[in-house]
Amino acid sequence: MGTATGIIKALNSGIKHLAIKRFTLRYPEQKLKFVGDGYQYDPTSGVGIAGYKGRHMLFHDKCTGCQLCAIACEGVAEAIAMVKVPEEWKHNKKAIMPQIDYGKCVFCGLCVDACPFYALYMTNDYELSSYTKEGLIYTPAQLQVKPDVQQDVEIQIDERGATHG
Amino acid sequence: MTAKLPPGLKLQKVDERIMTLNVGPQHPGSGHMRLIVQVDGDFIVACDPDPGYVHRGEEKMAEYRNYLFNIPHLERPIIHDSCNILYPYVLAVEEIIGAEVPERAKYVRVIASELNRCVYILYWLGIYGIFLGHSTMFMWPMGDRELFIDLLEKLTGARVTHAYFIPGGVRNDLPANFEDVCLRQVNYFEKRIKEYADIFYNNPILIHRTENTGVLSREDAIRLGTTGSVLRASGVDFDLRTKEPYDAYEELNVNIPVLKEGDSYARSKIPWLDMFESCNIIREALEKMPKSGAVRTKLKPNPRGGDVTVYKRTESGRGSLGCYIVSKNKPEPYRLKLSVPSFRNLIALPYLLKGEKLGNMPAVYWSLNYWPVEADR
Amino acid sequence: MSILAPKFRLSYFLSSLTDNIFWIVVIFTLIGLPILFIVLFFVQLPVYESELINPFLTLSWIFHPELALPLLKAFLLTDMFRIIVFPGFGFAALIAASVIFIERKMLAKLQLRVGPFYCGKIEGILQLMADGLKLVSKEIIIPAKADKPIFIAAPLLFIGTAAAFVALIPVAPGWVVANIDLGLIAVFAVIGFFPIITVLSSWSANSKYPFIGGIRALFQMVSFEIPLILSLLGIVILTGTLNLSEIVESQANFPWIIFLPIGAIVFFVAMLAELERIPFDLPEAESEIVAGWLTELSGMMYGLVQLGSYLKLYAFAALFVVLFLGGWQGPVFFPPLEETLIHEGQTIGPITIQTPGLPIFSMEFFSGVIWFILKTAVVIFFILLPRGVFPRIRIDLLLDLGWTKLIGLSFVNIFIALALIYSGVFGPGGLL
Amino acid sequence: MSSDTETKDPETKAPEKKELPAKPEEQLPEFEKGLSDKIVAKFGEKTEVAFVKPDRIRINVKKEDIKDVAIFIRDDLGFDHAESVAGVDFPADKEIEVVYHLGNYTDPKLSRQVLALATRAPREDTPNPGNDSTRLPSLREVFYSVEFHERECFEMLGVYFDGHPDNRRLLLPEDWADLPPLRKDFDSKGR
Known about the structure:
The complex is a heterotetramer of chains A (165), B (377), C (432) and D (191). In chain B, the strands form 3 sheets. Chain B has a 3-stranded antiparallel β-sheet with strand order 1-2-3. Chain B is 45% helix and 12% strand. Chain B has 377 residues and is of the alpha+beta class. Chain B is built from 16 helices and 8 strands. The longest helix of chain C is centred in the first third of the chain and has 33 residues, at 10-42. The model of chain C has no long low-confidence stretch (mean pLDDT 81). Chain D has helices at residues 30-43, 66-77, 147-157, and strands at 47-53, 56-61, 81-90, 95-103, 114-122, 135-137, 160-162. In chain D, the strands form 2 sheets. A 5-stranded mixed β-sheet of chain D has the order 1-2-5-4-3. In chain D, strands 6-7 form a two-stranded parallel sheet. The two termini of chain D are 26 Å apart.
């Protein structure tokens, strides 16, 4: 009786899995660990550095206001707008810097590729929710802040199955 | 009944036995599309698929953006297989602008593509499970998918829409220690999908239920131009990874699973066997990959092609995916056409559902490896 | 995790508390007390120290610990208690609720996930309450062209029928709501109501998917009632009685599953089909016909049907236990309560509780109920397990299974029973 | 490439790839050449071989002949299914091109090959899909698999396929009353 053995095998497999560890990542308490500090781009070699594509981080001392990130975003999401900043840097004559609307951003990272001065990085911060749409628009001052992330959970594999540690 | 109808409307004489069901888009068993199903008792008399619910004109959008900026939005039609939908596009653009791909990048692409294929197949399998009322087969693939999502996230920096392939290579090199993590998780995953056999694929109820339903003969599969798992389940050994190997597949050893039955059971089994093959390919590619080297050639800014037309095709998670680009000396494609496998498989649906039982509808429909969003583009 | 609401004010909080208390008091005085009085007028009250207790006395005595006890004792012996609380609806509903919770946690464990987790701090134990609250607070939407009286009545009928089914199950010796001689026939009669209610509900909804689901349910239930009934004939032949309590007592030495395993399997499969559990959940097949005959039910109407179906699940599992696993029979495995505790009472602080003659403190009762619940839990586990393991079956396979295989097997079962009788193993002058 | 984005790049770099189609006369791949030669030998003047590249052949035919050529390709060359039907709008030529990409599943020699069969239909400036001169004979009788592709082509470019059994809308909404959207004069607003 192939049918009977099949049914018994299936039931047995079901009962066996009652003893296997749960795989669920309990998100707000646990956060997955990522590689590196986020996606960065090396303009000299033309290759990116692997990392999570989360919220951007802008280095004010490197940004020249060349608008290349805004031009890159124009064809993708139109999330980047160049705004006036009060700071006056020698290399940023126009005193404009990107302002990113995370309601539109698709986190493709092409703006990071476009920046020739290492001024725009992506970070591991992905918790960007806000009560208002205005809250999603990050000004250059907000983008300057390095996010404080506590992500330490990794997938662990042992005899009793895989878990999120 | 006696009320006068407004002008322009006519009462239709319908056979009273026949009931028309609108399956979708708000139906749990349809996805983002509508199937107009006419049933006579428990038998389906006719089925008229009505896709287009999520049509967003990707092909038209592509005519306004240059070859690079097309990348993030061209992967939107199927975010679970985004590396594979970009693959033919990237190959075609490389031919148009004449870019060379470094050897290491070819292997990285193959690895990303195979990882992504598994991610897609697991998602598909989860939905196939829940369509057949098997909730465990929904949860297990969704959980195991996390292993590959995690790998792709380490590799590309995004969980679903990777935007990883780029004309001339890939966006970034492998992160440190990636090979070990990848091997560990792939090996564990292979052990894991073997456990699907007892509970799902060898389950007698599933076999009784899906065997001999929606049988697509070999001749019909060829005539209807189906592709991917549908074609291979009908006994046609056709997979572009072996038939027209691109990138690093030429050097890799690929064994394509082929089944002869052509019913929904075989169609659902092919992707499962494919995942074993993907694991082998990933392991082999990790081994054969050059340990160092460039992964991306520098392109000119804003590259533009000549006055050529290019048709490239690759094997995605659902079947062969073609990309036809007409270039007219511009940085943007003049016309971009994606010949997507879901759309090609859709034609088999009304053909297969005619005369089937209503209870078989989800099994046949989803076994076609059909992704509504991709079909609509 | 838990932070105060951003606009928290202590004064608002306190005023909301006093508001709540005020309304609770008002509602209790206006509604609760009259209802209590009405109930007390109909309950047969005991004579205590040569004084016939009336409802007013009851209300005043109920707060006195020593005087309340005879009242409680009297109440425990009433039919009302049996119907509402112990072997009847309350007990069954409690088990049904725990079944829902256990089902979710078990399925989650099988599927390597967590299941309800956050509601109620301990592994989501209050999830069911939250779901119930949600269902209660939801709007009930009735389709415009539905036959409203029948449509509204169907869930009530469903849960009523399920409760009637529960009433026939003996839980412990003497503890059954309706101990009738034709118990098994009554069970079949009650089961026969379910397809009618299903069809009524689905027809009155005037919608396509409920209609298909209702027809499917009708097919399924009718075709599986026959093997369900036939598979029990073996037991009736062997015991010679239709009374469920007597059937339990006939299994004092061995449960019937030892001699009639085929009957037990047939009954179990037919039971799964009657319960519309996976793999036989065709009437609610989600991917084919949305939610089957439940499609148009919303809010608490859906909640009632769900509660009814879990009551039904408990009742069927209990019926299986009663018929095949020997009901409350089982060895007493814990030491009996001390006599002094029963007769002289237990001192808790300033008061002494004396419980002479309380029916629930007999050894028989305790052991019986525990065995019964344990056996029912095992059966329920096997009812729940297929949900994680099997896909849904198709309607033609289902009917084929019901009409050919199961009926054939149940005849085999009857022949086994007859063979046992004629070979002299059972019956008058038999070996056992 | 540090910046993918300098849109105002000098146009002088553009014509570098322009001579691609002119070059490859001497190194035409043999097998593909044989296939195209067969078609030329059968139909002669009626067909025009646009290019023969490794694994790819493209043949332009007039719309009157496309059915015959398609039947020949199916029966004698062995291409058994159509992979895609792509319509391309050429407002400058006042024509709409429809390209059938044909492939083969069974023959291992042919399975690498994709034969593009292109034809052109006249284009009208004020289209009235289905009722104007933008018509082509349908290849649905020849290659069954073009059924949905031709339906898509009809709604996206307004090319009516004569002989198609089911020329209805497929992807676009039922109330679409604008131009066929893949025509070049349909401007997608906001890109």
